[in-house]
Structures are given as C-alpha cells and as structure tokens.
Amino acid sequence: EIVLTQSPGTLSLSPGERATLSCRASQSVSSRYLVWYQQKPGQAPRLLIYAASSRATGIPDRFSGSGSGTDFTLTISRLEPEDFAVYYCQQYDNLEYIFGQGTKLEIK
Amino acid sequence: QVQLVQSGAEVKKPGASVKVSCRASGYTFTNYQMHWVRQAPGQGLQWVGIIRPGGVTQYAQRFQGRVTMTRDTSTSTVYMELRSLTSEDTAIYYCAREMDLDYWFDPWGQGTLVTVSS
Q: For residue A43, what pLDDT is reported?
C-alpha cells in the first residue's frame, strides 16, 4: 500500500509570504490521482487541486500544484489570512483512496 | 447548487450499530458515486468506502465486514451503516461526491459526529 507523507507537519508563516507544502508518495503514483484539500476548523474539507495541478472551480490562482512520480507540491504564492488551515493530499491506489497526514499552516 | 446534507449527531454504546444518511440535491444523483470518509478527533482523514451509481460498493479493507453502504435513488440519499462499534470509531463521518474516474471528492457533506461511549 502506498503511503503519503506530508511535510512539514506544521508551517508557520506570515500573511503575504509564500507557502510550499510537500506530499511524498512511497512509490510512484499517477499525477492524475493526486489531489489537495484544504480544511478549516469545524468545516469539511474543500477541494483545491486535482490531477496534481488543476485548480478546482472558484479556487484563487495564488494556489498552484505541481509534481510527478513520488514528489508533489502545493504552493500558495502570497498567503491571505483565510489560507491558514490544514492541507491534505490524497491519491488513489489499488482500489483505495489514501490521505496524507496533513500539514497545518499557521500564522507566525 | 450542489448540496450534500447529512443526518445529525449520534451517540452509541460499544457493540452497537450506527446508520448515517447523506441526502444529495442540485445534480443528477445517478450520475455520480458517493464516498464516505471519517476523521477521528484531532486526526487526519480516512477513507471508508464508496457506493457507485449502479449500487456497487467497495470498502476499505479495515472496514470490510463491518460497513454497509446503500442508496435510495427515489430520495437521492445514500446511507452508511457501521456495526460492532468501538471507541475507536468515534469520529466525524463525511459523505463526498465523485464523478466516475475523477478521483477527487467535491463537494463534501457537513459531517456527522458519531460518538461511541459506554
């Protein structure tokens, strides 16, 4: 079973800064299956990026996804106050859907 | 607009069963499949299973034999029943929509808190 490891566990940044979140798979995965979600406290997850680099409807262009093989990245170009949340990557493998453990993006 | 509305919070005793519902609106129910994902308090997301448009189900290995997903197309509602509950099943359970072969979930229901406690 593929394992997704997200790093760092917690990222402390200030509004206006650039955030780079990593999702590493234990073996190569198709970019088609790599997804990113944002979750704020008390809310359900929200789709941000699908197929590694495609932004979901309504997602601001400061969010971008990249990567292939085993290494994927979510980048937030200039942090807004509403971007501080937990981010999860997800992929599909062998008929199951697997999530990373999450990266908490907190205000410095 | 597309909406997934879930049933309310549940409190169950160890060994009992729980059945959570998710009513869909704003789209053609039979064109999409529905997933269930859970999140234990303070923890990450864990996939439970899927019910496909034709009613075919597929469950995560860890839940095999303990979970059943069903649907009622007349009311655009899907159900997830989890049996033999333990305290480790205490979590928020989310339903989430997927179009076949998209591999992403959008949108998600608001979540249903299931608490297992003696």
A: 98
